Amino acid sequence: MSAAWLVTGAAGMLGQDVLARLAGAGIPAVAAGRDAVDIADSASVRAAFEEHRPAVVVNCAAWTAVDDAETDEEAALRVNGEGPAVLAEACREYGAVLLQVSTDYVFAGDAAHPYPEDAPTAPRSAYGRTKLAGERAVLDTLPDTGYVVRTAWLYGAGGGNFVRTMIRLEGVKDTLDVVDDQRGQPTWTVDLADRLVLLGLGALAGTAPAGVYHGTSAGDATWFGLTREIFRLLGADPERVRPTTSEAFVRPAPRPSFSVLGHDRWKAAGIEPVRDWRSALGEAFPGLLAAERP
Asked: Active-site residue 105, yes or no?
Protein backbone atom coordinates (compact mmCIF):
# COMPACT_ATOMS: atom_id res chain seq x y z
CA MET A 1 0.00 0.00 0.00
CA SER A 2 1.19 3.51 -0.83
CA ALA A 3 1.98 5.80 2.09
CA ALA A 4 0.22 8.66 0.30
CA TRP A 5 -2.68 10.49 1.89
CA LEU A 6 -5.65 11.64 -0.17
CA VAL A 7 -7.10 15.03 0.80
CA THR A 8 -10.54 15.79 -0.63
CA GLY A 9 -11.78 19.37 -0.61
CA ALA A 10 -8.11 20.23 -1.07
CA ALA A 11 -8.71 23.76 -2.35
CA GLY A 12 -10.73 24.79 0.71
CA MET A 13 -9.49 26.67 3.74
CA LEU A 14 -8.93 23.54 5.85
CA GLY A 15 -7.77 21.38 2.96
CA GLN A 16 -4.97 23.82 2.18
CA ASP A 17 -3.69 23.68 5.74
CA VAL A 18 -3.90 19.88 5.89
CA LEU A 19 -1.77 19.68 2.75
CA ALA A 20 0.73 22.16 4.20
CA ARG A 21 0.96 20.16 7.43
CA LEU A 22 1.52 16.92 5.50
CA ALA A 23 4.20 18.56 3.37
CA GLY A 24 5.92 19.86 6.49
CA ALA A 25 5.95 16.34 7.91
CA GLY A 26 7.34 14.87 4.69
CA ILE A 27 4.20 12.79 4.11
CA PRO A 28 3.29 12.36 0.42
CA ALA A 29 -0.19 13.63 -0.32
CA VAL A 30 -2.61 13.88 -3.21
CA ALA A 31 -4.66 17.06 -3.43
CA ALA A 32 -8.14 16.18 -4.69
CA GLY A 33 -10.31 19.18 -5.43
CA ARG A 34 -13.92 18.93 -6.58
CA ASP A 35 -12.80 18.91 -10.23
CA ALA A 36 -10.55 15.91 -9.61
CA VAL A 37 -12.80 13.76 -7.43
CA ASP A 38 -16.57 13.85 -7.01
CA ILE A 39 -16.83 12.23 -3.60
CA ALA A 40 -20.50 11.29 -4.12
CA ASP A 41 -19.75 9.43 -7.36
CA SER A 42 -18.48 5.91 -6.78
CA ALA A 43 -16.78 5.69 -10.17
CA SER A 44 -14.87 8.93 -9.56
CA VAL A 45 -13.81 7.83 -6.09
CA ARG A 46 -12.82 4.35 -7.27
CA ALA A 47 -10.66 5.83 -10.02
CA ALA A 48 -8.82 7.96 -7.47
CA PHE A 49 -8.28 4.98 -5.18
CA GLU A 50 -7.05 2.81 -8.03
CA GLU A 51 -4.56 5.46 -9.08
CA HIS A 52 -3.26 6.55 -5.69
CA ARG A 53 -3.97 3.67 -3.27
CA PRO A 54 -4.16 6.03 -0.28
CA ALA A 55 -3.32 4.89 3.23
CA VAL A 56 -5.38 7.72 4.75
CA VAL A 57 -8.20 9.83 3.34
CA VAL A 58 -8.92 13.22 4.93
CA ASN A 59 -12.35 14.36 3.79
CA CYS A 60 -12.40 18.16 3.90
CA ALA A 61 -15.01 18.35 1.13
CA ALA A 62 -18.35 19.66 2.37
CA TRP A 63 -21.41 21.71 1.59
CA THR A 64 -20.92 24.53 4.08
CA ALA A 65 -23.62 26.98 2.93
CA VAL A 66 -25.69 26.50 6.07
CA ASP A 67 -28.61 28.70 5.06
CA ASP A 68 -28.81 27.41 1.48
CA ALA A 69 -29.13 23.87 2.81
CA GLU A 70 -32.52 24.79 4.26
CA THR A 71 -33.97 25.12 0.75
CA ASP A 72 -31.75 22.57 -1.02
CA GLU A 73 -31.24 19.80 1.51
CA GLU A 74 -31.00 17.18 -1.21
CA ALA A 75 -27.96 18.86 -2.75
CA ALA A 76 -26.36 19.33 0.66
CA LEU A 77 -27.03 15.69 1.52
CA ARG A 78 -25.28 14.55 -1.64
CA VAL A 79 -22.04 16.17 -0.53
CA ASN A 80 -22.31 15.86 3.26
CA GLY A 81 -24.04 12.49 3.55
CA GLU A 82 -23.67 10.47 0.37
CA GLY A 83 -20.09 11.62 -0.24
CA PRO A 84 -18.74 10.28 3.06
CA ALA A 85 -20.71 7.06 2.51
CA VAL A 86 -19.01 6.52 -0.86
CA LEU A 87 -15.59 7.36 0.57
CA ALA A 88 -16.16 5.01 3.52
CA GLU A 89 -17.07 2.13 1.24
CA ALA A 90 -13.96 2.71 -0.86
CA CYS A 91 -11.80 2.92 2.28
CA ARG A 92 -13.30 -0.37 3.47
CA GLU A 93 -12.53 -2.05 0.16
CA TYR A 94 -9.01 -0.67 -0.19
CA GLY A 95 -8.01 -0.85 3.48
CA ALA A 96 -7.62 2.88 4.05
CA VAL A 97 -8.26 5.03 7.12
CA LEU A 98 -10.92 7.74 6.76
CA LEU A 99 -10.90 11.01 8.68
CA GLN A 100 -14.29 12.70 8.28
CA VAL A 101 -14.55 16.36 9.29
CA SER A 102 -17.92 17.12 10.87
CA THR A 103 -19.57 19.90 12.84
CA ASP A 104 -21.09 21.11 16.09
CA TYR A 105 -24.39 21.49 14.20
CA VAL A 106 -25.13 17.80 14.82
CA PHE A 107 -26.10 18.88 18.36
CA ALA A 108 -29.16 20.86 19.40
CA GLY A 109 -26.95 23.69 20.64
CA ASP A 110 -28.90 24.27 23.84
CA ALA A 111 -26.63 22.65 26.44
CA ALA A 112 -25.19 24.33 29.52
CA HIS A 113 -21.94 22.33 29.63
CA PRO A 114 -19.50 21.21 26.90
CA TYR A 115 -20.85 18.42 24.72
CA PRO A 116 -18.86 15.21 25.23
CA GLU A 117 -18.06 13.12 22.17
CA ASP A 118 -20.81 10.62 23.01
CA ALA A 119 -23.53 13.20 23.71
CA PRO A 120 -26.87 12.52 21.95
CA THR A 121 -27.12 14.23 18.59
CA ALA A 122 -30.18 16.32 17.69
CA PRO A 123 -29.54 18.60 14.70
CA ARG A 124 -31.94 21.51 14.26
CA SER A 125 -30.94 22.46 10.71
CA ALA A 126 -30.77 20.80 7.30
CA TYR A 127 -27.01 21.30 7.34
CA GLY A 128 -26.73 19.53 10.68
CA ARG A 129 -28.89 16.64 9.47
CA THR A 130 -26.76 16.13 6.36
CA LYS A 131 -23.52 16.21 8.32
CA LEU A 132 -24.90 13.71 10.82
CA ALA A 133 -25.78 11.40 7.92
CA GLY A 134 -22.12 11.53 6.88
CA GLU A 135 -20.95 10.75 10.39
CA ARG A 136 -23.19 7.72 10.64
CA ALA A 137 -22.10 6.38 7.26
CA VAL A 138 -18.43 6.55 8.26
CA LEU A 139 -18.86 5.03 11.71
CA ASP A 140 -21.18 2.26 10.49
CA THR A 141 -19.02 1.28 7.49
CA LEU A 142 -15.64 1.66 9.20
CA PRO A 143 -16.04 0.72 12.88
CA ASP A 144 -12.30 0.12 13.22
CA THR A 145 -10.79 2.63 10.78
CA GLY A 146 -13.33 5.45 10.63
CA TYR A 147 -12.75 8.73 12.47
CA VAL A 148 -15.18 11.63 12.84
CA VAL A 149 -13.65 14.93 13.92
CA ARG A 150 -16.23 17.58 14.78
CA THR A 151 -15.16 21.18 14.60
CA ALA A 152 -16.72 24.65 14.76
CA TRP A 153 -16.11 28.35 14.22
CA LEU A 154 -13.23 27.72 11.81
CA TYR A 155 -11.01 30.50 10.55
CA GLY A 156 -7.83 30.59 8.49
CA ALA A 157 -5.87 32.60 5.95
CA GLY A 158 -6.92 30.42 3.03
CA GLY A 159 -10.59 31.37 2.72
CA GLY A 160 -13.45 33.57 3.79
CA ASN A 161 -14.43 33.38 7.45
CA PHE A 162 -15.70 35.45 10.38
CA VAL A 163 -12.29 36.62 11.59
CA ARG A 164 -11.22 37.87 8.18
CA THR A 165 -14.59 39.59 7.75
CA MET A 166 -14.22 41.42 11.05
CA ILE A 167 -10.68 42.52 10.10
CA ARG A 168 -12.12 43.98 6.91
CA LEU A 169 -15.09 45.64 8.60
CA GLU A 170 -12.93 47.27 11.26
CA GLY A 171 -11.39 49.34 8.50
CA VAL A 172 -14.69 50.61 7.11
CA LYS A 173 -17.15 50.73 10.04
CA ASP A 174 -17.16 53.11 12.97
CA THR A 175 -18.99 50.58 15.15
CA LEU A 176 -20.04 46.95 14.80
CA ASP A 177 -23.03 45.22 16.40
CA VAL A 178 -22.11 41.57 17.03
CA VAL A 179 -24.13 38.71 18.48
CA ASP A 180 -23.40 38.05 22.16
CA ASP A 181 -25.83 35.16 22.83
CA GLN A 182 -24.09 32.43 20.81
CA ARG A 183 -21.11 30.75 22.48
CA GLY A 184 -18.50 28.56 20.83
CA GLN A 185 -14.82 27.88 20.28
CA PRO A 186 -12.97 29.85 17.58
CA THR A 187 -10.66 27.31 15.92
CA TRP A 188 -7.68 27.94 13.63
CA THR A 189 -7.56 25.63 10.63
CA VAL A 190 -3.82 25.16 11.17
CA ASP A 191 -4.45 23.72 14.64
CA LEU A 192 -7.20 21.43 13.33
CA ALA A 193 -5.02 20.30 10.43
CA ASP A 194 -2.29 19.39 12.90
CA ARG A 195 -4.68 17.24 14.93
CA LEU A 196 -6.03 15.54 11.82
CA VAL A 197 -2.53 14.55 10.73
CA LEU A 198 -1.60 13.32 14.21
CA LEU A 199 -4.83 11.33 14.37
CA GLY A 200 -4.18 9.76 10.98
CA LEU A 201 -0.66 8.79 12.03
CA GLY A 202 -2.07 7.34 15.24
CA ALA A 203 -4.60 5.35 13.26
CA LEU A 204 -1.86 3.86 11.08
CA ALA A 205 0.23 3.07 14.15
CA GLY A 206 -2.71 1.49 15.97
CA THR A 207 -2.51 3.94 18.87
CA ALA A 208 -5.62 6.03 18.14
CA PRO A 209 -8.97 4.31 18.66
CA ALA A 210 -11.52 4.84 15.90
CA GLY A 211 -14.63 6.91 16.59
CA VAL A 212 -15.56 10.49 17.38
CA TYR A 213 -13.19 13.29 18.38
CA HIS A 214 -13.82 17.00 18.91
CA GLY A 215 -11.39 19.25 17.05
CA THR A 216 -12.07 22.68 18.53
CA SER A 217 -9.98 25.08 20.57
CA ALA A 218 -9.94 25.12 24.36
CA GLY A 219 -11.83 27.91 26.06
CA ASP A 220 -14.88 29.61 24.60
CA ALA A 221 -16.26 32.98 23.59
CA THR A 222 -19.25 34.66 22.03
CA TRP A 223 -19.01 36.22 18.58
CA PHE A 224 -19.01 39.56 20.39
CA GLY A 225 -16.09 38.53 22.61
CA LEU A 226 -14.18 37.16 19.64
CA THR A 227 -14.66 40.39 17.70
CA ARG A 228 -13.42 42.49 20.62
CA GLU A 229 -10.28 40.33 20.72
CA ILE A 230 -9.83 40.85 16.97
CA PHE A 231 -10.09 44.62 17.46
CA ARG A 232 -7.57 44.45 20.29
CA LEU A 233 -5.11 42.60 18.06
CA LEU A 234 -5.64 45.22 15.37
CA GLY A 235 -4.82 47.97 17.84
CA ALA A 236 -8.38 49.27 17.52
CA ASP A 237 -10.71 50.29 20.34
CA PRO A 238 -12.73 47.20 21.45
CA GLU A 239 -15.47 49.56 22.64
CA ARG A 240 -16.37 50.07 18.98
CA VAL A 241 -17.83 46.55 19.12
CA ARG A 242 -21.32 46.51 20.65
CA PRO A 243 -23.28 43.45 21.83
CA THR A 244 -26.57 42.45 20.26
CA THR A 245 -28.80 39.36 20.12
CA SER A 246 -29.48 36.69 17.52
CA GLU A 247 -32.88 38.25 16.88
CA ALA A 248 -31.09 41.15 15.18
CA PHE A 249 -29.64 38.79 12.56
CA VAL A 250 -32.37 36.29 11.69
CA ARG A 251 -31.15 33.60 9.28
CA PRO A 252 -32.98 30.76 7.50
CA ALA A 253 -31.07 28.11 9.47
CA PRO A 254 -31.12 28.26 13.27
CA ARG A 255 -27.72 28.89 14.84
CA PRO A 256 -26.73 26.93 17.95
CA SER A 257 -26.68 29.13 21.02
CA PHE A 258 -24.12 26.83 22.65
CA SER A 259 -21.43 25.15 20.53
CA VAL A 260 -18.84 24.34 23.18
CA LEU A 261 -17.43 20.84 22.73
CA GLY A 262 -15.54 18.62 25.18
CA HIS A 263 -12.17 17.10 24.27
CA ASP A 264 -11.69 14.10 26.53
CA ARG A 265 -11.35 11.54 23.74
CA TRP A 266 -7.93 12.79 22.66
CA LYS A 267 -6.41 11.23 25.77
CA ALA A 268 -7.22 7.78 24.44
CA ALA A 269 -5.17 8.56 21.34
CA GLY A 270 -2.26 10.04 23.28
CA ILE A 271 -2.74 13.39 21.53
CA GLU A 272 -3.03 16.78 23.21
CA PRO A 273 -6.27 18.63 22.48
CA VAL A 274 -6.19 21.95 20.64
CA ARG A 275 -4.81 24.88 22.65
CA ASP A 276 -6.74 27.90 23.93
CA TRP A 277 -8.38 29.96 21.22
CA ARG A 278 -6.75 33.23 22.26
CA SER A 279 -3.25 31.79 21.95
CA ALA A 280 -4.05 30.39 18.52
CA LEU A 281 -5.65 33.60 17.27
CA GLY A 282 -2.63 35.61 18.34
CA GLU A 283 -0.30 33.33 16.38
CA ALA A 284 -2.60 33.21 13.37
CA PHE A 285 -3.26 36.93 13.24
CA PRO A 286 -0.33 38.17 11.11
CA GLY A 287 -1.26 35.74 8.34
CA LEU A 288 -4.95 36.62 8.59
CA LEU A 289 -4.17 40.33 8.43
CA ALA A 290 -1.89 39.87 5.43
CA ALA A 291 -4.57 37.84 3.63
CA GLU A 292 -7.30 40.42 4.27
CA ARG A 293 -5.25 43.61 3.94
CA PRO A 294 -2.46 42.78 1.49
From this structure: no
